[in-house]
Amino acid sequence: GEDTSSLSDPHFHVLMMFTKIDKSRSLQEKFRVAMLSMVKHGDFLEEEVLVLHFVSDQASQELGQRMLQEVLLDATFQYEVVFHDVVDLTHKLFPIVEAMQKHFSAGSGAYYSDAIFFLSVAMHHIMPQSLSRIVQVDLDLKYRTNIRDLFKQFDHFPPGAVLGITREMQPVYRHTFWQYRKENPKTKVGEPPPDGLPGFNSGVMLLDLKAMRASALYNQLLEPGNVAKLADQYRFRGHLGDQDFFSMIGMEHPQLFYALACGWNRQLCTWWREHGYGDVFQLYYRCDGPVYIFHGNCNTAIPDD
Ligand code: UDP
Ligand code: MN
After folding, report:
1. Is the confidence at residue 239, as pLDDT, over 60?
2. Which of 30, 268, 273, 278 could form a disulfide with 300 if both were Cys (CB 3.0 to 4.6 A apart)?
3. Is the pTM for the entire model greater than 0.80?
4. Alpha carbons within 13 A on the beta-carbon side of 106
């Protein structure tokens, strides 16, 4: 991009959702695997700083601070840790995302507490203007490479792209867009790669906040009327939050997205193989090329190195 200031900015911002962690041993273990592998492969220049942002409640923050002391022990790079209060962020987010929640949340109402599942969608309004890029990642990941390399992907964004994201690796959107696909039998919506539009997975997201702020198209798509129009056009009804929103607008405006290689978010969940989609599953699931990050989604075990 044209942003020369970011070339010299030595801060690399990574954000993770980190709520109710004290209630789940399984999430604690996933977090440990993610952080230890991130630290193991993390390599930065002397003047660079990895800034770890956590969106958290009080109990999770206290646990997180204790666990971080341990998992960051072997870090060879500078880092900072920032905790964001989930209540504060929800308060800022709710007015922006309230209208879209009913299309992309479980249940029928727009629950206030569900707004946080749309954080990435409005991150450009929530984070300070001085923050121009942030990477949002799940906790159920295992890094096999230097996370610094992920940030290099920002430099490949074509003009107009606001978000870097990997495709969804199960036929979940083949299922969700079922009605639209029936009414439009030749559509690429929900079809497998390389020619189809399988939707996106939100486990690893590169948010170009500066581009998100600058994109008239992207900000129009956040307006309640336009969300409703697209959801109606695609007969869309989901429950996966930001991932559903991005997948839906990506059907209409693929140029807003930079397609990260599948190896940057190699999802391992096979749930849909056993739930009616076994015949087409491999078309979606296969990922050739190197795996940089494993994603053990739907509680799937991640293979050892
Ligand atoms: N998460 C959280 N608290 C929870 C559940 C989830 O903070 O109680 C966050 C965590 O960062 C996690 C992300 O939400 O990685 C998405 O959930 P998960 O990875 O379990 O979903 P999946 O990838 O299996 O769909
Ligand atoms: Mn996940």
Report:
1. yes
2. 268
3. yes
4. 4
The answer for residues whose C-beta is within 8 angstroms of residue 50's C-beta and 6 or more apart is 12, 14, 42, 44, 77, 78, 79, 80, 147, 148
Q: What is the pLDDT of residues 67-101, one digit of tens each?
A: 999 999 999 999 999 999 999 999 999 999 999 99
What's the pLDDT score for residue 7?
57
| Residue 65 pLDDT > 70 | yes
Closest residue by Cα to atom 14, ligand 1, is: 17
Ligand 1 site-directed mutation target among 15, 19, 141, most atoms within 8 Å of CB:
19
For the CA of 53, the nearest ligand = 1
Q: Give the ligand at the shortest distance from the Cα of 61.
A: 1
Q: Which of 116, 138, 169 to mutate to test the pocket of ligand 1 (most atoms within 8 A of CB)?
A: 138
Asked whether 17 lines ligand 1 (CB < 6 A), one says yes
pLDDT (0 to 100) of residue 264? 99
